[in-house]
Every structure is written in C-alpha cells, then in structure tokens.
Design brief:
The protein is of the alpha/beta class and about 400 residues long. It contains 16 helices and 13 strands. α1 runs antiparallel to α12.
Length: about 400
Amino acid sequence: MGFWLIRDAVLVLALGPFIYYALTLWAGILHFRRKKQGLSSTRSDYTPPVSILKPVRGLDREAYENFASFCRLDYPEYEILFCVSDEDDPVVPVIEKLQQDFPNRGIRLFVGAPGIGASSKVNKLCRLVEEANHELLVISDSDVRVEANYLRDVAAPFADPKIGAVTVFFRSLIPGSFGATLDASGSAVEFTTSALLAEKLEGIRFTLGATMATTKERLAEIGGFRELANRYVDDFELGNRIAARGYRVELASTPVWMVYPRETLSEFVRHELRWIIGLRNVRPGGHAAMVFTFGLLWTILAAAVSPSVTLAGLYVTSYLVLRGAVYLTLGAWGLQDPVARRAWWLAPLRDAASVAVWLFSFFSDRICWRGLEFQVKRGLLIPARAAAISSAKRQRRTGEVLEQ
C-alpha cells in the first residue's frame, strides 16, 4: 500500500516541471512577440544624458571589444566611467587604449574606492556614482558587449516616472570550450524563463548584472549603493529595493551579449555554485522550491516507478519535447542566442549539472569571486579571512565554556 502511494505521489509531482515549462513557454512567447512587433509603450525618442558605470577587476576575454562596444553607441550624450582597485590591475592599459582610440567619448578612469563594505564591486560603484555627471545611471558587468541601440533601449522606459529601474536579458558569445558551451547553453535561457514567469505572476522585482539602470534619485531613496556594500547579489537587491518602494522594473527590448571565458567543466560548476549559493542565502524559499522545476530528476523518478513502459516513455518524451521547446523558443527565437540554437540538445546534461550543484549548495557557503574568497551568510559577503577569524573566536569561546 505504501509503495503505491509513493508511486502515485511521484507521478503527480513529476507533472510539476512540465507545467512550469509550459508556463514559461507561454510567458516567453507573449513577451518576445510583443517586443518583436514593436508593441512596447516606451518612447524611443527619450534620450536623456547617461553615465555608464563600469566597476572592473582583472582582464576578461576580449575586454577591449567589450568596452569598445560601449563607445560606439547611437546615442546623443553619454560618458563612460571605469573604476579599478589599484593601478597595477591588468585592465588599466586596455582602458587607457580605449581613451586614446575614442578621445571624444568622455571616458574617465578612477583608481581606488573607499572600503565601505566587503564587495569591491559595490565599493567602486559608490565612488562612480559620486563622480557621475548625469542623473541616469547605467551599470553593466565587464564581460558584457552591446549593440549600437543599447542605450536607447535602456533609457526609453524612464520616460515613464513610474519606472524605477531597467534591466536586460543576455545572450552568449563563447570561445568553444566544453565548459563554456555547457554554461552558456542554459544560463541565458534559465534567467529568461524565471524572469518572464515572475513578470507575469508578480512583476519584475530584481535587476540582472548584465545591466542595472536607475537614476540617482531612485538610488538615493534606497540609501545608495552604500546599503549594498556587504551584499553578495547586489543586482537582485537593487531591483528588489526599488520595486519595494512602488516603482516598476522594466525589461529593455534588446538583449546584450555575455562574453564567456574559456571555461573547463570544473570552472563551470564553480560558477554555477557561486550563483546558487547566493540564491540560497537571499531567497531560501525560492532556492528550495527549485526542486519542483527539475524536469530531468522527476522524469527519471517517474519512469522508474511507472506501472508500464508506455507511461514511462510518455514522461520521457514529454520532458524532452518541452525542454527542447523552451530552449529553441526562448533561447534561439526569443533571445536569438546562437549558443542555444546550436547546443539546445545539451539541455538534459545541463539539467543534470543543475541538480548536482543545487544539492551541493546545501553543504557549502563559500565562493570564489574574481579571485577573492568569501563566505556568504544570509546574503552578506564575509571575506574568507574575516570568516576564519570569527570561526576561531567562536571555537575559543566554546572551549572556554566546556572548560568551565
């Protein structure tokens, strides 16, 4: 009797990921059809002056081309501000070459930032906001490359005073390594599916690091970047806090390009683990609920307990068809992501890696970020050295209590 109850429960729960895939397909088709048909209500002629802020550390693949794409934008007035931690950073010569090649673009480089918190990136953003000449701020990661219409797409929604922040989806450029292919084949699709479903159910309440755009006024209302200096997922926190004040977070029309490094398989796993540990600390409920979206896991379980080969085959076929449809519809058609178009068939392998990383994330709170080691605790970044000292102090206190 007990086995039949467990079997029936597994068969029912295994339908959950299929419903999730169908809902994301519905949300994605509606979103991208509206964007492609030009049905957005934003004003393309709204082009206020913009300050592009680039906190950087180290040298990304094709860094010069990434930065140069921001210098070739079809936009009337904007400046680009970079900030590095020290003058010996290998990215400095690249930025200096950029200044030489685009002398009329208004490119400024700043070295050093106040040590407000554990996040070097946010510390740099605090300085860049103070140095920015314009009210509208656009922040993007250093591994991002953009099209000429990028700023017009990002700035246009701010014509509506109810918009508090704008973010964008991304698509992928890879060097061809297996780790990068596996990473890029699913990352853009997964972020897009979760964001579009959230948009339909509750509205967008976060921004993505590929682009975080807001105004100095809205930023000041949430306490500025100073309030995020010890937060790991600053992009999520920025959008979430702005949305909490009653403003909308809008998705810009055109995805940006994410330029991946030549990753090994282990580097891909560490990258995924870094992201999901952050999710577990910021949204533990959402992290736990991910188990109900793992189609591969539930399909295997359903096939294993199915009372017939026919039913098992139906579960497997449904999973493969729906998963392929999500990758091809949202990734290849919606995002126009060339990696998703070529490597959509890797979806089951990508899903297997996601399940493994999700399980491991329950047993670790340590990450490596831009060469620096941190512990993540309740969404806060704690430098590894500080975490080790704190742990040693707790052990000493525990020892003293035991001795007493």
